[in-house]
Amino acid sequence: MEQPLLPNPNSSTSTDSPTAESAPPNTLAGLAFVLILAAMSLWANLEASEGFDITILNAARPGTVAARRFDLLFVSNGKASQILQNASDFVEHILYPNELYPRKPVRRVTLRLAGHNLSEVVVSHGDDSQRPGDFVILVSPSAMADANPGMALGLAVQRAMARVWLWDGQGAAPKWLVDAMMEYLSLSAGFAGHAVPLQRGGTCWGEEEEPVGTARFLKYCEERRSGFIARLNRAMRKHWNEIMVDVALGSPSRQLCSAYQSRIRQRPEFSGSRSVLGPSQAM
């Protein structure tokens, strides 16, 4: 009679040494999901680190002092691009301290010396509405007539890059608040505009207040609640509601306004004179 076939003692079985092929399907799916998330995170970080394209244009009337000074002092030596990049880095550091703060898409920034004088620096979206992330900064040629054109251009670009990176609630945030946040970022960078003392009974902020005065109150709020400006900017990413201010502060803004008014009365901070102290990159 034939003997039954016996298993070869030298052969291995699936129970002797588990392999990846014997791993449960759920484990493999979970591992794949983790790897996909890691790849997406790496891609996002690489995209953010690539920065944005910079274009410098001189649209001032050819042959004018403004056109010649801009070319000589800021275009030929790459100084304009450096000022713009430094201004952007400063604003980004405040508004987007870590990955928990979704960054505004900025693909290209064009700095253009305008062909006529402007009352203020102008920031607009690029001409191609199908490609979001393009911004154009118009600077008045009168900046080139300033005693310190580097300081004048630095201030204009600092405010402009603040506007580029600030969310505005899809256009619903009040203009006075966005202007005040722009001014706050300029003050933080070392630029001081016209000093505006808080009037007795003032509201600290609002449409009736000067942007610089409101910016100084924002500075006070930031000192009391670190990260306030970044949190408020993040809240304004998709929409706007007045309660966002109190949420970003972590307390009613009326309370901080009362404390700020009391401090101003006890220790006046502003003389009403104009003092401009720009960061080194504007020199």
Protein model, in words:
With 283 residues, the protein is α/β, with parallel strands linked by helices. It folds into 2 domains: 48-165, no CATH class; 168-283, no CATH class. The chain has 9 helices and 4 strands; from the N terminus they run H-E-H-H-E-E-E-H-H-H-H-H-H. The chain has helices spanning 25-49, 65-75, 79-95, 149-165, 175-188, 211-224, 228-235, 243-249, 253-266, and strands spanning 53-58, 108-113, 122-125, 134-139. Strands 1-2-4-3 form a 4-stranded mixed sheet, covered by helices on one side. A hairpin with an 8-residue loop joins strand 3 and strand 4 (134-139). It is globular, with a radius of gyration of 28 Å. The model is unreliable at 1-7, 9-21, 38-49 and 270-283 (pLDDT under 50). Residues 8-19 have a biased composition (Low complexity).
| Major sheet details | 4 strands, mixed
Distance between the termini: 104 Å
- Outline: globular
Fraction of residues in helix = 40-55%
- H/E series: HEHHEEEHHHHHH
Low-confidence stretches: 1-7, 9-21, 38-49, 270-283
Please count the beta strands (DSSP E, at least 2 residues each).
4
Radius of gyration: 28 Å
